[in-house]
Fold:
Amino acid sequence: MRRVLQQLKNALCRWPLSGTLACLLLAAGSATAQLAPNQTNGFGNGRLVTFTYQQNFDCVDQPAMDLDFNKIKAESDPNEMQIPICQVVTEPTADPSGADIKHTAHLYVLVPMFSIDSDTNPNDAIPCPAARPGELCGPALGNALVQLFGFIPEAWKAKVNPAITTQCPDPDNPVPGTCTMHASSVDLSVLLNTVGKTGPPTAPIFVPTPNHSHVVDNSRVNTGAIWWEVRPVLVMSPADWPSADGSTGITSSKIMDDVEAAGRAVEVGSNFFLFFSSQMGSPQAHVHDAHDHVMAAGASSARGGN
Structure:
């Protein structure tokens, strides 16, 4: 495919004037689409941004925590240290650098908790990777999701419905639930209890990392490599899901806040951190108005964003 695109580009660029314009447009499109192996896209301030990862993820466990729910604090439980437990909702008091989490940058991870086609086929869920034993995946995950939500969310489909796109997995790494330098599994035990789907956790519930997209605060679109707290945002409506080019949907923290205030998304914390830099796309990248988006989606209330 890349060879065909390059041949098309070379052919168009040989034409005078109109060919020059086409050449420039193709070059601009290629610059936007191509990512290095350690990069992903995100959104911020209504535009595409590029994240460059400098090291692997960290899921912080502190001495007084009990992330595996065996009633033994981590400080006295070496087994708890053997696998990363990336737990949604649970937040430590410090990020991996030791800094107070109150001052840590936020990476809003948009998770599509809807199904475009009301899919109830358990075989459509993300298959089991060569990962940890006991992980909920494949048809077992599909059956559990249908029981919990009545359908399989796009978040855990092996193949996301083509009506939407996600930034993870990225186009160069099409394995569902994967993205460069990310954890491959997350623990949903506390989240499911918090939303009333299960009782108090007695053990982690590991599932594949969901298909997702990213948003950063407007003030963070151009930021050097730092630790970011992953804050999952459960998006309930496809009308709010961002398009690949950022022309519609949640592409800024302001729009995200408005959607949350309207009850169409829920934001939670986690003990999951990623280390990367963020860089804004070109000035020509699309910007769309938050107010227009929210009005079009039917929201009647909003709150301030960053």
